[in-house]
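Input chain follows. Return structure tokens only.
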Amino acid sequence: IISWASQFIPWVNPNLGVLTSAIFATVAVLVIACPCALGLATPTALMVGSGMGAEKGILIRDGSAIQILKDIHTIVFDKTGTITNGKPEVTDIIPAEGIDKDELLKIAGSVETGSEHPLGQAIVKKAKEVGLDFLELRDFQSISGKGVMGLLGNKIATVGNIKLLEDIYGEKNLPLWAENELDKLENEAKTAMIVARNGKIDGIIAVADTIKDDSIQAIQTLEALGIETVMLTGDNKRTAEAIAKKVGISKVLAEVLPEGKVSAIRDLQKKVGLVAMVGDGINDAPALTQADVGIAIGTGTDIAIEASDVTLVSGKLSAVVSAIRLSKATFKKIRQNLTWAYGYNVFAIPMAVLGLLHPVIAEIAMASSSISVVTNANRLKKTKI
């Protein structure tokens, strides 16, 4: 074989002794078999991918996230602060008979001074803009997914949905005017809150949030990629469905309490497989942890960010699309690198065993394979995500 190969391969010398040829072949095999290219194939691509993500404001906290994202079947979105800007404003103040708008706003604002929720802060902001003085609030309580309550004077004041009133006073029948107003406001994608004292309804205050500029385009792109989108929110069903319809989300899970969000994610995982969750609030943290990939909006709470695997610094939903494209591009490079590294070994090791590779040539080939893997990984930077 060596004599025949010497006609085509200039470094093969058929006149070498058996021992010398054996030593050359052994050294060449050891050099060629060095797994440098295989060892570099995956980490270099992951490193470049993570670096690209950081440049685009996609902070990957858990390396497994970039691996899972490419195979995600369903992405679940929180509503407030995720799909919307999270800066709601008061749009409607509807007092009951015998009370004026300022008094209604004063009552609601006084209770909401104890709340950190964006909806509550919108009411407080509106009351301050009008120049109202707040009443003294005692024994404040926040009931997740339902509303807030506290003592104003000697009266129990509540601001929230009908479930809050039912929890406190049992089954509650709303006046016809209130039911009509709630239907109207919720169909307009507004969040309507019932203001009451000692169970007597003082009025309704509606708050609306604007949809982020890129939400519609991001959802459309995800759907085009074959990824199912779901909205998971504690807001009432009609308001949630109105927002979902505007942005093009295919499925809505509304009126879900924080502990229910974890169960909802778990159920989806059983039905469809890999699920990602995108959220920004304290209430989203358990669901972010339960999801296969938790994605936190960087403008959200620290707790949500800590619970997530990926943080989107910009807060834009388009970054979710970029993260998925980055994952796909990164693993495409990894497959290319592994194919080259394996192919190099499959081709070169038999040649080295047969004594057809000089050790110097083997070293050059080994170094070239490692360089080619690193170079190919760096070509990932040219990929548009």
